[in-house]
Amino acid sequence: MRVLFDAYWWVEGQPSGRRVVDSFVRTWSASRPDDELTVAVPRRHVDRVRELVGDAPIGIAPVRLNPHGVSVLAELGSAADADVVIAQNFTPLRTRALRATFIHDLMFEQHPEFFTRLERLYFAGMPWSARRADLVLTSTRAEADRIARVRPGLAAKVVPVGLGVPESFRSRRAADPGLGLAPGGFLLCVGRLNARKNTGRLVEAVLAAGLVTPDRPLVVVGEPDGLAAARHDPGDRRVRFVGGVDDGALAWLYGNCRLFVFPSLDEGFGLPVVEAGLSGAPMALSDIPAFRELAPGAAFFDPLDPASIAAAVRTELAGPPSPSPAVEVPAWTEVVGRIRAAVEERLEERLEERLALR
Length: 358
Known about the structure:
By secondary structure, this protein is α/β, with parallel strands linked by helices. Helices cover 38% and strands 16% of the residues. It has a seven-stranded parallel beta sheet with strand order 3-2-1-4-5-6-7, sandwiched between helices.
């Protein structure tokens, strides 16, 4: 099979997105050596991608346009000869290949208040172009249900295939980030700082309830992003915003926190939940469908209610550390296998349809 993969964010973008692209590409190349895999990347990143590819038999197709959505819509479909084009979020408007589009979420349609007007205008191209997709892939059953609910015309095309933990995280060696934290002596929250991640309400809850101190702080990992990032007095050592950290430091923080708390108002997936679970962290999570699916054994709270957040955290801190709940996450080979199986099935259906018309 000739596969053209949208790797626009392999070099630039959110850290989690870069790691996911890296895992997709490397796993597909290693597990399906008979496939001809080509990655479409911005022209300015070609040299760096050549370094990332190394000796792997992966072709590189430069694309010129930006932002990402415009590039996918206008040029991805013709970037290389392929049997299938696997795009992210947006769908090529013109191509002879099968179109399989991985939509990470359509949250903006259900919760427009989390996004700026410009973001909503840009994201509107996702469901609009998905009408041309042969397959709509997504990470969780919860997100597949949302896509079907907000865009019924896509319901028959949606296939949840999962997401794995990035290989760079699995293979990392934990390293103390040098923040002066004692093992078991801090709470942890990980994620971009914006209105949807709800960090401000978490800070409000733990401060009002006296659940954090300078000696047992809440540590928040993540960079400001989008609307209404959380704000806090940097001189208050009960809450410490530390920005972004590398995989080794992140692994240490997950593995040594007293409790991982994720108060997000909505997610299509939730990579920090999976990373925390695999690192052995006890968890208190927002009671949202994606988290119920990923970590059904976690403690849950109402993310809109500071009292509910505080109660869940207090309960978890009152006794000995709970074992980390099992997380429902496939290996990357399974994710790639599910995508390829769905593509093969649709290619066979397309062939049968064409034969029937002769």
